[in-house]
Fold Major facilitator superfamily MFS_1.
Amino acid sequence: MLIDIPLIQKFILYLGHPVLAFNYVLAGLLIGSGMPFPRGIKILSENKKKSKTIPVMWGLNGAMSVVGSVLSIMLSMEFGFTIAILVGALLYGLISLLSRNLVIAK
């Protein structure tokens, strides 16, 4: 959500219609950013001790979606869409590196 909302706002400027912008951004982001969560759930489910944390991960995913939405609006209003997108990309990159280390440590 931290990247989605600023991108939708930018695409509205280019496409001129909010529904078109939403569809293009959603389609693009579902391909890329939608994969880490199912991958993480799969990794957790393969480990018997860690599989008990899956409900917590679902709750954390929901909470971070809400926080990301609010944070993206706040960042966009204060610093602009470009900074909001960069912050989101930086956070996604850090999470990707951390999850890679978890997979290697498995």
